[in-house]
Automatic annotation (TrEMBL):
Biological role stated in the UniProt entry: The branched-chain alpha-keto dehydrogenase complex catalyzes the overall conversion of alpha-keto acids to acyl-CoA and CO(2). It contains multiple copies of three enzymatic components: branched-chain alpha-keto acid decarboxylase (E1), lipoamide acyltransferase (E2) and lipoamide dehydrogenase (E3).
Cross-referenced SUPFAM superfamilies: Thiamin diphosphate-binding fold (THDP-binding) (SSF52518)
Biased composition range(s): Polar residues: 7-16
Domain Dehydrogenase E1 component positions: 76-374
Enzyme Commission numbers on file: 1.2.4.4
Example GO biological process: branched-chain amino acid catabolic process
Gene Ontology CC terms: mitochondrial matrix
UniProt xrefs under Pfam families: E1_dh
UniProt xrefs under InterPro entries: Alpha-ketoacid_DH_E1_comp (IPR050771), DH_E1 (IPR001017), THDP-binding (IPR029061)
Annotated keywords: Metal-binding, Mitochondrion, Oxidoreductase, Potassium, Thiamine pyrophosphate, Transit peptide
Natural source organism: Paramormyrops kingsleyae
Family of this protein: Belongs to the BCKDHA family.
Protein's UniProt name: 2-oxoisovalerate dehydrogenase subunit alpha
């Protein structure tokens, strides 16, 4: 029996702890059947939702039962973001600003997640999360100042539009090389854990960015170092023109969580309450248990990727219309509010008017404001400017002095 190649009997006979695999890298059993694991072993991860498309609560025990005041705040932030997007998109089209990215269709992912966090939690965004910053209280004037690169911009006009940041609101400045924020966020969460600060980190990224190597590094460090972080993937169907069926072959991003040993969930990103519930519970447990959570919010990018893109080249108008007309996070929330008698045509009309006015005032103010002082180009990187930079600054000053008639220097702050 010892020499039997059929194996089964001898295994039973010599069953002892040493017959279990002893490899340090896995906790598993031996098998004697050749079998590959099917790639779809994790497939069809369900989509958690609280409301149906008509804004009706499906399971009352999942209703977050937020106050009227909070729900109205959700709605107002989502629609204000929409209005700001429309005005800034148009102003790029008119040549007033150089670039813009809209958030159409993803408002529920922003507001639902932002509302579930503590203000002291640190946010790392990708670039399509303006609603998170808006929910935290970033004023329209500062959004506009950033896009207009005027003297009020916290970044002093040194970044492309939509690269917002706010130290006060714990929102790390956007850097658009994809996925760089993911390992940075993991490191920040590790620091928060070691400082025992009771803070969490949330890191937003697109399903396209999740294909970058940096995403792997961030996920794996967070899991092994047991970091209080929420990885929030906005799966909006596209990475510019690349649809998800060309982006990955597994069951989306949530399916990767178990591979990293991470708690994971897929939610309906167009259901602001589902996003809120999932983020709130993930946030609570991330801090209480020091472990990372992965949330994949399914949504749809209704706008073009950016003002440099024309999405009609790679998707149908019907597809976009479906999401815009049938399954929109804003209309879903409005159905919910209307059913409770919290919102009707009158409120809608006056809020539309008021919000448009707020955006237009901020826009006009930003456009009138002077540009940042040219010497601010040279500040904020070094504590003391190295001689090389000092020389460049002097050269710029001489150049502007000599050729001043070629530069609109009166538009710049002195
Ligand atoms: C490293 C890197 N490669 C390529 C780009 C160009 N790029 C900018 S956005 C983008 C698509 C990202 O898609 P996704 O992560 O799904 O986010 P979404 O735009 O859909 O919100 C690409 C390829 C980049 N910014 N950085
Ligand atoms: Mg995407």
């Amino acid at each position: 029996a010892v020499c039997s190649l059929s194996g089964r009997l001898s295994q039973q006979t010599f069953d002892s702890p040493s017959d279990k695999p002893q490899f340090p890298g896995a906790s598993a059993e031996f098998v004697d059947q050749l079998e590959f694991i099917q790639p779809n072993v994790i497939s069809g991860i369900p989509v958690y939702r609280v409301m149906d498309r008509k804004g009706q609560i499906i399971n009352p025990s999942e209703d977050p039962k937020l106050s009227k005041e909070t729900v109205l705040k959700f709605y107002q932030k989502m629609t204000l973001l929409n209005t700001m997007d429309r005005i800034l998109y148009e102003s790029q089209r008119q040549g007033r600003i150089s670039f813009y990215m809209t958030n159409y269709g993803e408002e529920g992912t922003h507001v639902g997640s932002a509302a579930a966090l503590e203000p002291s939690d640190l946010v790392f965004g990708q670039y399509r999360e303006a609603g998170v910053l808006m929910y935290r209280g970033f004023p329209l004037d500062l959004f506009m100042a950033q896009c207009y690169a005027n003297a009020d911009d916290l970044g002093k006009g040194r970044q492309m539009p939509v690269h917002y940041g706010s130290k006060e609101l714990n929102f790390v400045t956007i850097s658009s090389p994809l996925a760089t924020q993911i390992p940075q966020a993991a490191g920040a969460a590790y620091a928060m854990k070691t400082l025992n600060s009771n803070r969490a980190v949330i890191c937003y990224f697109g399903e396209g960015a999740a294909s970058e190597g940096d995403a792997h590094a961030g996920f794996n460090f967070s899991a092994t170092l047991e970091c209080p972080i929420i990885f929030f993937c906005r799966n909006n169907g596209y990475a510019i023109s690349t649809p998800t069926n060309e982006q990955y072959r597994g069951d989306g991003i949530a399916a990767r969580g178990p591979g990293y040993g991470m708690m994971s969930i897929r939610v309906d990103g167009n259901d602001v309450f589902a996003v809120y519930n999932a983020t709130r519970e993930a946030r609570r447990r991330a801090v209480a248990e020091n472990q990372p959570f992965l949330i994949e919010a399914m949504t749809y990018r209704i706008g073009h990727h950016s003002t440099s893109d024309d999405s009609s080249a790679y998707r149908s108008v019907d597809e976009v219309n479906y999401w815009d007309k049938q399954d929109h996070p804003i209309s879903r929330l409005r159905h919910y509010m209307t059913a409770r008698g919290w919102w009707a045509e009158d409120e809608e009309r006056s809020w539309r008017k008021q919000s448009r006015q707020l955006v237009m005032e901020a826009f006009e103010k930003a456009e009138r404001r002077l540009k940042p002082r040219p010497e601010w180009l040279f500040t904020d990187v070094y504590d003391e400017n190295p001689t090389g930079l000092q020389k460049q600054q002097e050269a710029l000053q001489r150049h502007l002095e000599q050729y001043k008639e070629h530069y609109p220097l009166d538009l710049y702050d002195k």
